[in-house]
Records
---
Amino acid sequence: MKSKIITINNYNDYNKFLKRINIYKGILYYNTLFEVKNNINERNIDYITNALNMKNRKKRIEYVYDQSCKLIDWKNKGINICGFENGKCWVQRKIKNGKCNGCCRKCIYQTSNGCSTKNLSCKLFNCTEVRSRYNVIRYNDLILLKLLSKKNQIIIKSDYFSKREDVLKDLYSYSFIYSTFRIVYRLIRNYITVNKIIKK
């Protein structure tokens, strides 16, 4: 494998590097190991370099997915951003609708201890109440997601209420139609299951 050394001394260099990610992740650089000299201590550079040096497509997708989840978890660590008290979020307490578990009430993976899986789409979703109270991570803040294909970027924005393993299968698939069918099927199955639980 050949190596490519990139030096980033300022944010102008950093922005140029980000603009070239689509080229660096392509076939022209498949046999290239990147060494990026990060002289501005920008944490994203190290994550991107690690991902670019993963030449196995599935491993790269999994790394981008898991690392993005970790970045959100680190940002929200120790903060009750949904304002849960007695199982009710800010909005549910404000409108007094008698519902519990916030947006997660519609998901089969909710538990009394929180989410039993790791869903990036759900982690990126925050209602207007939360966004007005906290500076939360949004989709465009996760620079790592630039390493995903356009199809996979769309999936990350819409694959709610699914377990990590199912989302990764959707991302691994080359067919957008197949992934969309899987997502719609799970949403319908989830809706039916949750309604059955509520009626009991």
Note: The chain has ten helices and four strands.
---
Amino acid sequence: MRHVTALALLLSSPLAGCAPAGADDPDGADSLEAAITSAGAWYHLDHSDGVANPTLTVANGYRVTCPDGRSSTTCRAARLVLPADCGWECRDGLLSGRGEAMLRGRFERGAFVVTAGLDTWQAGLGAESIYRITGAAACAHDPCPSGLSAQKLNTTRAPTAVTAVDFSHAADPNYVLDPTRGDDQAASEVGLLASGHVVAHVFRADRVWRPWTPRPACDPQLTARDHAGRGGAEIAQLRTVAEAERRVVPEGTSAWLVRTAQTPAAVEFTAGVNDLWAERFSIDRRTCALTVLAEH
């Protein structure tokens, strides 16, 4: 359903990619910025007629030299070229205009070639700058991912180390109710895109972007939730085993799941019920093959 042939480029006359021309920094750090180019830059999708005639604004309000030679915060292209895995469902979400689409990519022969696409669940950018939050490629114990850092989009300044991401004030209720959605995105190749600011070493998220493309061949978190919830049990996903084991359950049983370790090749989870862990298992990032490591 998600695998379709990439859209062909329509125009053949070569045009230059974007290079900076005095970036405008809403946070007042112009002197800290180095050159950004269209290759790898992030843009807000202001308007498009499907994939035709997109208008793109450089994220965080920076000024660039567009393919037509104008120095501007906004560039235009003849067409969007979407990744092969962006099928009808992806296009419906990403290009619908219901949310705020954010695209990473490059200008190429008059088209904008998208390498990553995300959007918010509803319209509204908010007033905060947008950051990409990532974690270390590996972590040995929960909470995982570890080594979180927030990098303001389209800058080359050193990222800000943060201890956690606070979704309690996020505009998207899905992240308020299940903050581990954000943990999973921070551990992914694309990373977690969110607007907000840092308070006492914690990134306080406002708008949060949902990933559409590229899609990984395997989603370890979904596989883990399906495995832990076999039999139809509802799963509470938490950040640490200690937090899960001390939860107070008023009545009945409560199943839980914690991401406890990861490497570039695999992700480990611990599943349990009430105040006891029940199983530890690993999921291969490439194939989603599951290996039980221990049972309680």
Note: Confidence is low (pLDDT under 50) at residues 1-35.
